[in-house]
Amino acid sequence: xxxxxxxxxxxxxxxxxxxxxxxxxxxxxxxxxxxxxxxxxxxxxxxxxxxxxxxxxxxxxxxxxxxxxxxxxxxxxxxxxxxxxxxxxxxxxxxxxxxxxxxxxxxxxxxxxxxxxxxxxxxxxxxxxxxxxxxxxxxxx
Length: 141
Description:
Elements: H1 2-23, H2 43-52, H3 57-68, H4 74-93, H5 95-109, H6 116-123, H7 125-128
Helix pairs in contact: 2-5, 3-4, 3-6
Keywords: Seed storage protein, Signal, Storage protein
Pfam family, one: Tryp_alpha_amyl
InterPro entries: Bifun_inhib/LTP/seed_sf, Bifunc_inhib/LTP/seed_store, Napin/2SS/CON
């Protein structure tokens, strides 16, 4: 009988330990100490949007056509069409990547700061589409 009591007491102790262990489960939550602020995009995010928006091809064609400035001809009509499509591409870029995308386009095109007219027109692309203009200073390589 004493042996039975010892086994029973051991089993009871084991059950009690399992119950206590199960009741004391600790849940932890980690908090990112350095999250990316809302609205901030990384260069990779903007780069992938540039690819999706065909490297802002219509914005580039608009700047090229408008730079030609033939009034009343097909160049102006083409410029208007490209401007509409450019605005769609900029909208799809989102305001956080819009200026970064324009800077990438300008650098890819090889337009330099000496081509001030192109830079000025590029800065104002977002304004022409109803967004805030871009500051293009210190963009050029």
